[in-house]
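Anyone up for a design puzzle?
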């Protein structure tokens, strides 16, 4: 891929922009992995590495979502 041949500074810029884009996508409707996974593949990461990295990267957003909606998860007795 073209991105894999870029110097390190440019690749880091691509990672930063993809991270910001994924954060915005997750904040609006989820689906940030549709940004980060292809970006990691384009920069030369193996599919396994890209999958694990993307999964670990979105865990904080899941925890934040749970913290924001924990009252909705409460089981109430009727």
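Challenge accepted. My sequence:
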């Amino acid at each position: 891929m073209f991105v894999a041949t870029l110097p390190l500074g440019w690749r880091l810029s691509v990672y930063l922009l993809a991270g910001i884009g994924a954060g915005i996508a997750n904040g609006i409707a989820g689906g940030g992995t549709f940004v980060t996974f292809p970006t990691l593949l384009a920069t030369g990461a193996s599919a396994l590495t890209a999958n694990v990295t993307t999964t670990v990267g979105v865990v904080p957003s899941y925890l934040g979502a749970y913290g924001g909606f924990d009252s909705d998860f409460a089981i109430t007795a009727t």
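A detail worth pointing out: The CA atoms of residues 7 and 13 lie 10 Å apart.
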